[in-house]
Design goal:
The chain is α/β, with parallel strands linked by helices. The chain has two domains: 149 residues, no CATH class; 53 residues, no CATH class. The protein is built from five helices and ten strands, in the order αβαβββββαβαβαββ. The N and C termini lie far apart (87 Å).
């Protein structure tokens, strides 16, 4: 009687290899499958962004990912799309302006991502162009925005507004700004801050600040820039003032 030859060391049987690959694929796909099975959040969110100069929609890009990842649907029950599912300015569109007056009545939470606006020069700090014409295409909070906010916050059903500082800052007119203070119950001091990784002249300091202070600008390294509506600047450098 002949003996069966033992399998050579290191040789894996085909069925075992298939089972191992299947198990590996199952483990890797499990988080995605669980995400697909997770029900949508029971909340309706409207995003308002007037500062969408490109199709990338940078000002609410992270917010769009957050809403999509945590399955906060549109009013139609569809997945949130950063480039499409928002009110505000839609570049390349035949009718680019979609203001707050078209907000869906089913909205539970209004997120005002950015109202700074869109500008002809691409650099909003220039209030006018060389010919004297306005640089602003569309931006700043309007009287219509105030009325929609007031109605939204005073309705009987639950309503929440999340608004960034420039909801009542430049280029919002002063009379609209005063109404925003009343509606939102807050007030802006006129100061704004930003973190800059490279404060040098050739770094990341905004061009409009360089236009004003280039002759006396001797800063370098990283830090925080504070500036107000009177063009006053405070520089806080990492390791020195900070």
């Amino acid at each position: 009687m002949k003996r069966k030859k033992p399998p050579k060391p290191g040789r894996m049987r085909p069925l075992f290899l298939v089972a191992l690959l299947f198990l590996l694929a199952l483990v890797l796909s499990l988080p995605f499958v669980l995400w697909l099975l997770t029900p949508n959040q029971d909340v309706q969110v409207t995003v308002y962004d007037k500062s969408v100069a490109t199709l990338k929609a940078e000002q609410h890009q992270n917010l769009g990912w957050f809403l999509s990842h945590f399955k906060v649907p549109t009013q139609e029950g569809e997945r949130f799309r950063t480039q499409k599912t928002y009110l505000g300015y839609h570049p390349k569109s035949e009718n680019p302006i979609r203001d707050l007056s078209s907000m869906d009545e089913r909205t539970d939470l209004l997120y005002i991502a950015d109202t700074y606006g869109v500008y002809k020069s691409g650099e909003g700090f220039l209030r006018t162009l060389s010919e004297g014409e306005s640089n602003l295409i569309w931006g700043g909070s309007s009287n219509s925005d105030v009325q929609v906010l007031r109605t939204f916050l005073n309705r009987e059903s639950s309503s929440t507004v999340v608004a960034e500082y420039n909801t009542f800052a430049t280029p919002t007119p002063s009379y609209v700004q005063a109404q925003m203070y009343e509606v939102l119950g807050t007030r802006w001091t006129g100061w704004t801050g930003m973190y800059v990784n490279d404060l040098s002249k050739g770094g990341e300091t905004p061009a409009w600040i360089m236009d004003l202070y280039a002759q006396n600008w001797e800063f370098s390294g990283s830090g925080i820039l504070l500036y107000n509506t009177d063009d006053e600047i405070v520089v806080l450098r990492n390791g020195i003032e900070l």
